[in-house]
Amino acid sequence: MFQVRIHGRGGQGVVTAAEMLSIAAFEEGRHAQAFPSFGSERMGAPVVAFCRIANREIRLREPIMEPDALIIQDPTLLHQVDVFAGLKKGGYILINTNKSFEELGLGDFIRDWPHERLCTVAATDLSKKHVGRPMPNVPLLGGFAAIAGVIKLESVIMAINSRFSGKVAAGNIAGATEAYDIVRAETEEARKEAAHA
Amino acid sequence: MLKQCEGSHAVAEAVALCRPEVICAYPISPQTHIVEGLGEMCKSGELADCEFINVESEFAAMSVAIGSSAAGARTYTATASQGLLFMVEAVYNASGLGLPIVMTVANRAIGAPINIWNDHSDSLSQRDCGWIQLFAETNQEALDLHIQAFKLAEELSLPVMVCMDGFILTHAYERVDMPTQEQVDAFLPPYEPRQVLDPAEPVSIGAMVGPEAFMEVRYLAHAKQMQALERIPQMAEEFQKVFGRKIGGLTHTYRGEDAETMVVAMGSVLGTIKDVVDEMRDAGHKVGVLGITSFRPFPLDAIREALKGCKRFVILEKSLAVGIGGIVATNVRLAVTGLGLKGYTVVAGLGGRAITKKSLHALFIRAARNELGPLTFLDLDWEVINRQLERERLTRRSGPAAESMLRDLGTVASKIA
User: Fold this and answer.
1) Residues of A in contact with B167 (CB under 8 A)
2) pLDDT tens column, B240-278
3) Which residues in chain B have Cβ-Cβ distances shorter than 8 Å to A26?
4) Would you tell me which of A159, B49, B63, B371 could form a disulfide with A20, CB atoms 3.0–4.6 Å apart?
C-alpha cells in the first residue's frame, strides 16, 4: 500500500487533490481511498487530506501517520505545521515553491535523502499561467506522477477530465503536463548525479 | 458499474435508484452532501416524479416525512447529531404510526461541547425509538443497505435508519459497484402502503389510545422488530441473488474460527480492526471479529452463537452511556448471559478521536492476557483529566471545563492525528 499525505491551506483544493489522486489510481484498476482531515475547512487554515493506493481492498480507516509521500501545496506551512511528521525515511517530498530545499531551510533535514525523491515545482505559477487562478493542486498531481511513479500522467489527465470540463480541464491538463515534465527532468538530473557520485 | 466516488454521492445515487417520491431534509454536516446530491438530481430531472421539499428544521423534516409517508409516498430524509435530537418527538411518531420512512444518519457526536466529528452517540441515543437501525462498514455496504432498507421498511411498515460513519465514510472517496436501475427495480417492488390518507376513502391515523389498548399497540411494534430479525437475513440472500454481493444480514464474523478473543464492533472501524486481526493472526494470536450490522432489532441469538466458542470478548464502541459505560456492550453482554465469558468494554473514537491500528493492537494483546479492566477508554489523555480534576478541587470557580482543558493542550488544529 502506498500512502500519500497532502498539506495545504483551505481554498487551495487540498481535498480535491486527494480525491482526484484516488480517481487516477482507480482508472488504473487499483483500489484507492481518499479522505480529508475533517473540521478545519476554513479559507487559509492548514488543511490535510490523505490518499491510500493499493492492489487490494483498503479497509484501514486511520489517518495516514506514516506517509510514503508528501505533497506540500503551501511552503509557508513548513513554519506552522509538522508536515514531515511520520514521513518514512527516504520518502517522496514534492513542494510547491520556486525555491530550493536549501533555500527553504530544509538542507539539514534532507541531507541523507535520495535526491531523486525530492522535488520542487512552482505549481501556483503554473496554474496561474494555464488556468488563470492560483490553484496549485492539479499541477502538483502531474508532478507527483513524475516523482513517485505510482500513477501515470495519463491517469491524472483522466481524473482531471472526470472533475472539470472545457477550458478549465484543458488548462489543468496543460498545467499538470508541464509540472510532470519539470519534475521528471529534475528527478532524472538527480539520478544522473547520484550515478556519478 | 464500478466507480470511484464520495460515500455521500454513492448513497444519493442509491436512494435515487429506489425511486423515492418525497425527499425532505434540513442540511447538517456530515449528511449534507447526500441531500444536496438528491436535490440536484430532482432539479435536473434525473430523479423523476420526486418532490424535494426544503424545510425549516429537522423537526419539520421528520414531520413532512410522516405526512408524505402517510399519504402513500415513498419517503426519504437524512440527518445527524443535533439534527436527529431535534426531530426526536417526530422520530417516535414515525415508528409508532408504522410509517416506512428511510433515513440516513451520518453518525456524529452530540454536544456539548460542540463537535462535528464522528461517533455513534446520535443514533444510539435513539435505540429505543422503534426504528430499525442498520450500521454500514463501507460505502458499498452503505449504498446497498439503503436499497434493502426501503424493502424492509415497506414490508414491515416500520421506519429504518441506515447509519454510516460521518466523514469517515460520507466524505471518503472509494470504489463502489453502483447497481443498475433494472437490478433495483427487480429487487424493490413499488410501495404498497398498509394505510394511506386518501380523501376518497377517509381514515384517521394517529388516534389517541388509552390504557385499554396502548400496551397491545406497543407490543405490536416489538413483534414487528422480531419479524425483522427473521427478514433481515432472508433479505440479504435475496439481495445477493439480484446483485451478486453478500451485504446486510444481522451480524458478520471474520476469522472467528477457533478464536479465543473476539472483538465486537459496528461501522467503519471494523475495517481497521480486521487489518489488526490479520496481523495478530499471522503472529499466532487467536483473535476474531464480530461485526454487528443490525443494532435494532438486536440479534441476541446470532451474537450468542458467534461468541459462545470464545473465552473473552472485547466490545469496542464509539459511544458512551454516561454513568454506566457502554451502550453496545450492555446489549452484547445480555446476549451472552450465563456463558461465563470474560467481557471487556472499550469506549473509543468519541468525537472523532482517531482509532489507530497501533492502539488497537496493544489493546487486543492486553485483552488476550486478561489485563483489561471491565471499562477502558482508548487513548485517554489522563494528564489533561487529572489537571482539570485538580483545578476543580482547588478552586470553586474553576471556570468552563472544556475551555480549560483545551488551553492545557495548546493548539491542536495543526496536528495531523
Assistant:
1) 35-36, 38
2) 999 999 999 999 999 999 999 999 999 999 999 999 999
3) 2-4, 175
4) A159
CATH code of the domain covering residue A191? 3.40.920.10
> For residue B116, which residues of chain A lie inside 8 Å, CB to CB?
38-39
CA-to-CA dists, residue A13 to A10, A41, A161, B73, B372, angstroms? 7, 11, 16, 40, 44
Is the whole model's pTM more than 0.90, yes or no?
yes
| Cell numbers found for residue B152 | 424492509
What's the gap in Å between the CA of A32 and the closest CA on chain B? 6
B64: nearest Cα among B30, B107, B21: B21
CA A60 to chain centre: 21
pLDDT in tens, B167-212: 999 999 999 999 999 999 999 999 999 999 999 999 999 999 999 9
Residues of chain B contacting A59 with CB distance shorter than 8 Å: 270-272, 274-275
Would an 8 Å CB–CB cutoff place B116 in contact with chain A? yes
Of A35, A38, A85, the CB nearest to B416: A85
Tens digit of pLDDT for each residue in A108-163?
A: 988 889 999 999 999 999 999 999 999 999 999 999 999 989 999 999 999 999 99
User: Among the CATH numbers 3.40.50.920, 1.10.20.10, 3.30.200.20, 3.30.420.10, which is that of B251-377?
Assistant: 3.40.50.920
| B contact test, residue of A41, A62, A65 with most B CBs within 10 A | A62
- CA–CA gap between residue B50 and residue B22 (Å, rounded): 5
Architecture of domain B2-243: 3-Layer(aba) Sandwich (3.40)
- Residues of the domain holding A176: 2-196
**Segment (H or E) for B2:** strand B2-6
Q: Which residue has the cell 440472500?
A: B237
